């Protein structure tokens, strides 16, 4: 059982923190809720006390004999602020201590996670961006907000990530996830591309995106800023990831190359179609009594090889390139050949087919390392494969 402090800012998303609190308590953790005074305008003190089973106060003058403004932070294994308003981020970045929550943030020597939620204009304001960079430079994990519906009719970045996704990040931190990707930007592709035959049909593959999303989730928990290029994935956005949605291989290429221009790491976990129809039809192909016309195919660009070629030509980013290879036969031999041919630093090879890899919650893989020994990852959750990849990436970045 861990001691978790849940700070709650004065934002409309405060009601979602009730679900986050439930995740912590149902996992056996002791949670002390520390709201700001104005946060109680959204969710009242009795609710927090009932759900946590702990006293709730906003004031440093309550229970002075217990020195709460010092003890709560000192005894915490994790402090998570959700929602973290622009006001809280500013106060934390500048070391202000006007209430119990900001005092707790100053005294905490455990990992601190901020889950911001605010209007888009506030999130994108230079002052907020500077405060976020300051907090990250000090070791705090600031999860990028989700994109979606805000208060009123507004839509954009600034929505609180799904509480279950925030909890996944926090759980990994409580289990001792290293903070070795702090200050790094990683680009991850996930899912499978679809190449249009006509407006109804497409050429695709079986990739679910689960492994790519696990890579995004674990990278965020290790402190990275994550750009996730998702091709046809029906999964909740991982907390802390900026998600760029694409459909085809050409769209995925454009998004990955744009995001990788200043990225430290690119991980090509998506299953990219090797070919696409040369002449996709503008209207549905009707079934006739005769045999259908053949579909002429053309090659799609090899995005992984293109990244390798750019680096060989002197482009400094990305510093580390990771590829994936799903094989059915001669897995290691084919993987080793691909590692050398593509010019990547790491290649994650796994066997597919027969219920393996695609669409399953677990995976087994071999991480091939350019100039090094292969790393075997036994069958287990896809997060374990992701962590094995990030271990190798972090070693190269250091």
TrEMBL record:
GO biological process: coenzyme A biosynthetic process; pantothenate catabolic process
Binding site for CTP: 274, 284, 301-304, 324, 338, 342
Cofactor(s) the protein needs: Mg(2+); FMN
Residue ranges of domain DNA/pantothenate metabolism flavoprotein C-terminal in the record: 181-395
UniProt catalytic activity: (R)-4'-phosphopantothenate + L-cysteine + CTP = N-[(R)-4-phosphopantothenoyl]-L-cysteine + CMP + diphosphate + H(+); N-[(R)-4-phosphopantothenoyl]-L-cysteine + H(+) = (R)-4'-phosphopantetheine + CO2
Region (Phosphopantothenoylcysteine decarboxylase): 1-185
Superkingdom of origin: Bacteria
CC cofactor note: Binds 1 FMN per subunit.
Entry-linked Pfam families: DFP, Flavoprotein
Keywords: Decarboxylase, Flavoprotein, FMN, Ligase, Lyase, Magnesium, Metal-binding, Multifunctional enzyme
Region (Phosphopantothenate--cysteine ligase): 186-398
GO (cellular component) term, any one: phosphopantothenoylcysteine decarboxylase complex
Molecular functions per Gene Ontology: FMN binding; metal ion binding; phosphopantothenate--cysteine ligase activity; phosphopantothenoylcysteine decarboxylase activity
Record EC number: 4.1.1.36, 6.3.2.5
Residues covered by the Flavoprotein domain: 2-168
Pathway as given in its UniProt record: Cofactor biosynthesis; coenzyme A biosynthesis; CoA from (R)-pantothenate: step 2/5; Cofactor biosynthesis; coenzyme A biosynthesis; CoA from (R)-pantothenate: step 3/5
Family recorded in the similarity comment: In the C-terminal section; belongs to the PPC synthetase family. In the N-terminal section; belongs to the HFCD (homo-oligomeric flavin containing Cys decarboxylase) superfamily.
Job of this protein: Catalyzes two sequential steps in the biosynthesis of coenzyme A. In the first step cysteine is conjugated to 4'-phosphopantothenate to form 4-phosphopantothenoylcysteine. In the second step the latter compound is decarboxylated to form 4'-phosphopantotheine. Catalyzes two steps in the biosynthesis of coenzyme A. In the first step cysteine is conjugated to 4'-phosphopantothenate to form 4-phosphopantothenoylcysteine, in the latter compound is decarboxylated to form 4'-phosphopantotheine.
Identification of the protein by name: Coenzyme A biosynthesis bifunctional protein CoaBC
UniProt source species: Nonomuraea soli
Gene that encodes it: coaBC
């Amino acid at each position: 059982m861990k001691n978790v402090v849940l700070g709650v800012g004065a934002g409309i998303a405060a009601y979602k923190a009730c679900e986050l609190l439930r995740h912590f308590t149902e996992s056996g953790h002791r949670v002390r809720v520390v709201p700001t005074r104005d946060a109680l305008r959204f969710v009242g003190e009795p609710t927090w006390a009932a759900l946590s089973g702990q006293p709730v106060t906003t004031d440093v003058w309550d229970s002075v004999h217990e020195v709460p403004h010092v003890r709560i932070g000192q005894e915490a294994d994790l402090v998570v602020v959700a929602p973290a308003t622009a006001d809280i981020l500013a106060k934390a970045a500048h070391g202000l201590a006007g209430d119990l929550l900001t005092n707790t943030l100053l005294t905490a020597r455990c990992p601190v996670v901020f889950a911001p939620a605010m209007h888009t204009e506030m999130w994108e304001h230079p002052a907020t961006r500077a405060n976020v960079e300051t907090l990250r430079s000090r070791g705090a994990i600031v999860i990028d907000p989700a994109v979606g519906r805000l208060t009123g009719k507004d839509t954009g970045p600034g929505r609180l990530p799904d509480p279950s996704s925030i909890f996944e990040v926090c759980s990994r931190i409580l289990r001792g996830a290293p903070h070795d990707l702090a200050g790094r930007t990683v680009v991850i592709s996930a899912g499978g591309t679809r190449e249009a035959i006509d407006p109804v049909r497409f050429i695709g593959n079986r990739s679910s995106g689960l492994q790519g999303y696990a890579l995004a989730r674990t990278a965020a928990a290790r402190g990275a800023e994550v750009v996730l290029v998702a091709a046809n994935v029906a999964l909740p956005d991982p907390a802390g990831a900026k998600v760029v949605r694409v459909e085809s291989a050409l769209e995925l290429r454009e998004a990955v190359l744009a995001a990788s221009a200043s990225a430290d790491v690119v991980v090509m976990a998506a299953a990219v179609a090797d070919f696409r129809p040369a002449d996709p039809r503008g209207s549905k192909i009707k079934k006739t009594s005769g045999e259908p016309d053949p579909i002429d195919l053309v090659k799609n660009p090899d995005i992984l090889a293109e990244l390798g070629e750019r680096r060989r030509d002197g482009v400094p980013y990305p510093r580390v390139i990771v590829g994936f290879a799903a094989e059915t036969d001669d897995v290691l031999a084919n993987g080793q050949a691909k590692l050398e041919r593509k010019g990547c630093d790491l290649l994650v090879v796994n066997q597919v087919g027969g219920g393996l890899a695609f669409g399953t919650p677990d995976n087994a893989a071999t991480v091939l390392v350019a100039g090094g020994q292969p790393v075997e990852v036994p069958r287990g959750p896809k997060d374990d494969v992701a962590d094995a990849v990030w271990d190798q990436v972090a070693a190269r970045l250091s």
